[in-house]
Amino acid sequence: MLYIDPHIHMVSRTTDDYQRMALAGCVAITEPAFWAGFDRSSPQGFFDYFRQLTEFEPKRAANYGIQHYTWMCINPKEAEDIGLAREVMSFIPDFLKLPTVLGIGEIGLNKNSKNELIIFEEHVALAAHHEQLILVHTPHLEDKRKGTLLIMDALANNPAIEPGRVLIDHVEEHTVGMVLDRGFWAGMTLYPETKCTPQRAADIIETFGHERIWINSAGDWGPCDPLSVPKTQLEMKRRGHTPETISKISFGNPRNFLSQCSKFNVDG
Amino acid sequence: MPHPDASCPMTYEQAIEAYFMEHRAKLIDVAAFLDRLERTSENKSDDFRMIAFRSALEVLGDGEPDRARRLLELFSDFSTEPIDTAPMKGALGAMPLDPS
Ligand SMILES: [Zn+2]
């Protein structure tokens, strides 16, 4: 069965992973800009990272028949330094014009600090000004609930933002309902240790339905599984969910959300 | 809000067949972890994470629904204002006890 992994950090993955994902049915991925596991020392470090996301990764993915799209931002873990964050944001508009850039992401909060929130709001304003889709990272563990609420309030404070054009990622059982109730899209990240498992993702779909929700691996440099989307397809199949429902969660829904940006073009 | 017709397509028996062994093992992992803590050199009972952990065990046994949501909430920060500065990048998994 075909699938889209709408949130994976391929700069941290090997070419073998591209091959394994292609063999498992992956036809497209979207790669948000994120924290590389260490702090970059200058805006130039981000500039080069954005070039890697827009120039190099699409070619690496194309070798395996996978379409590669990306998102631009300075991530919340490096947004505590407001001066640095604003310098990086100053060259994002040029990247937004490129053919594989779908929007602003993954922006959000990490420790729910004042500076993180300021930079989040400035990214939201940037997205509104350039009519971009938004992909939101929510904090981990004890910080997730509070951060998700602060993020949704900040989004609601900007009248130019339509909730249907914002995906709030890394939801779990205590945040998925509030995200969907407020009209946003919800992303479930299948990540060992700190986030959600394929079984819990299937539970959440059974409990909250399959509208405005997607699954992703958020594969990166930590312990993670770049095949967790097809593994969730398998888990749902094992339980007796229909092929239509499984395809909707892993292909149709991400395609519908992402196709709100005219640059995204993936055939079913 | 949970979906009005929330259900798992499996029968009760099928779900037990599929998941019992895995979760039996996870439960024994929890028991062995608690035993391990008792064997450590400075056996204390007041770490904020373990206080939350013990409350979580009570939730598992209370027979009420929405256990996963309630456990996650038990480990969550319920304050509402942004903090002044981020003290670190990571997270601890539970909320430190309020000193007041
Ligand atoms: Zn990510």
SSE blueprint and pairings:
The complex is a heterodimer of chains A (268) and B (100).
Chain A lengths: L2 E3 L9 H9 L2 E6 L11 H20 L4 E6 L9 H9 L1 H5 L4 E8 L5 H16 L3 E5 L6 H13 L9 E3 L7 H6 L3 E5 L8 H11 L4 E4 L11 H12 L3 H16 L10
Parallel strand pairs in A: 1-2, 2-3, 3-4, 4-5, 5-6, 6-7, 7-8
Helix pairs in contact in A: 2-3, 3-5, 5-6, 8-9, 9-10
Chain B lengths: L11 H28 L8 H13 L6 H8 L26
Helix pairs in contact in B: 2-3
The structure holds zinc ion.
Zinc ion binds next to loops of chain A.
Provide a descriptive summary of the structure in words:
The complex is a heterodimer of chains A (268) and B (100). By secondary structure, chain A is an alpha/beta fold. Chain A has a single domain, classed as Alpha-Beta Barrel (TIM Barrel), CATH 3.20.20.140. In chain A, 44% of the residues lie in helices and 15% in strands. In chain A, strands 1-2-3-4-5-6-7-8 form an eight-stranded parallel beta sheet. In chain A, helix 2 crosses helix 3 and helix 3 (82-90) runs parallel beside helix 5. With 100 residues, chain B is mainly alpha-helical. Chain B is built from three helices and no strands. Chain A binds chain B through residues 35, 77, 80, 110-117, 139-146, 149-150, 172-174, 177, 180-181, 199-200, 203, 206-209, 238-241, and chain B through 1-3, 6-10, 18-19, 66, 68-69, 72-73, 75-80, 82-95. The complex binds zinc ion (ZN). Zinc ion binds next to loops of chain A. Zinc ion (ZN) binds next to loops of chain A.
